[in-house]
Specification:
- By secondary structure, this protein is an alpha/beta fold.
- The chain has helices at about 25-40, 65-80, 90-100, 115-120, 140-150, 175-180, 210-220, 250-265; strands at about 10-15, 45, 85, 105, 125-130, 155-160, 160-165, 170, 185-190, 195, 205, 225-230, 245.
- It has a single domain (about 10-265), classed as Aldolase class I (TIM Barrel, Alpha-Beta Barrel).
- The chain is built from 8 helices and 13 strands.
- It is globular, with a radius of gyration of 17 Å.
Length: about 270
């Protein structure tokens, strides 16, 4: 797996908008990400959901059309020569998405779905399973086993916070060590600052804590950082309240690199 080739003083970055909103803005974000990570020598995977299946309200944005969005992801892969990742929500989507992306992501709320994990596994793609907000770190070994026992050893896990009351999430950093015993582990520092299921029907968030979470992950030897970012978070069509403004990304990554270099010497 490509994670094995990342030096100890670096980390993988999975980043991009929550959803593919259109070709122009997706390519603009991808271009900025590639420019920033090239200067810092950080390996990058571009993330974008080709459709949003898990929305609180029926009138929330769900996508621009499946094939259209998937073709945009494939175009980013071709133009910038970087891997791309998207999430799937049903078994039938696995083979469809596999034609366009390098990594298939299993959403946190579907991380126990056996048929979905098996079908994703059989594509032969790298599978990123996001830890269910309702699951303990050690219980994720069973989700990973479903993929491995279906013939695919290329599995990574992503921590994205644990349910904390009704409308909040918290990251328990003890869990990172447990997750890393099971598979390479990514820390999603933007979904972890969500405030889900608000009265308005729109997810809230506390993006001011993104850097604090990321710093803690880096010194706890996380394999990668997952960041949803946008050129205009306040007008993003999905999860804008917890996104990082891309103008702040280079400074954040530079700080994280300094921490990684220092902690890698310990």
């Amino acid at each position: 797996m490509f994670l094995n080739n990342i030096p100890k003083d670096k980390f993988l970055l999975i980043a991009g908008p929550c959803a593919i909103e259109g070709e122009k803005i997706a390519f603009e974000i991808a271009e900025k990400l590639v420019s920033i990570t090239s200067k810092l020598s950080i390996p990058i995977v571009f993330k974008g959901s080709y459709k949003k299946a898990n929305r609180t309200r029926i009138d929330s944005f769900t996508g621009i059309g499946d094939k259209k969005a998937l073709k945009i992801l494939k175009g980013i892969n071709s133009r910038f020569s970087i891997p791309v990742i998207t999430d799937i929500h049903s078994s039938i989507e696995a083979d469809i998405a596999a034609e366009y992306v390098d990594i298939i992501q299993i959403p946190a709320f579907l991380s126990r779905q056996t048929e979905l994990l098996v079908c994703a596994s059989k594509t032969g793609k790298i599978i990123n399973i996001k830890k269910g907000q309702f699951m303990s770190p050690d219980s994720m070994k069973f989700a990973v086993d479903k993929v491995i026992q279906s013939g695919n050893k290329n599995v990574i896990l992503t921590e994205r916070g644990t349910q904390f009351g009704y409308n909040d999430l918290i990251v328990d950093y003890r869990g990172i060590s447990e997750l890393k015993k099971i598979a390479p582990t990514i820390l999603d520092v933007t979904h972890s600052v969500q405030r889900p299921n608000q009265i308005s029907g729109v997810t809230g968030g506390n993006p001011e804590y993104i850097e604090s979470l990321a710093r803690a992950g880096i010194v706890n030897n996380i394999d990668g950082i997952f960041i949803e970012t946008h050129v205009d978070p306040s007008n993003a069509k999905s999860d804008g309240a917890n996104m990082l403004d891309i103008r702040n990304l280079k400074n954040l990554l530079s700080n994280l690199l300094e921490l990684r270099k220092a902690s890698s010497k310990l």
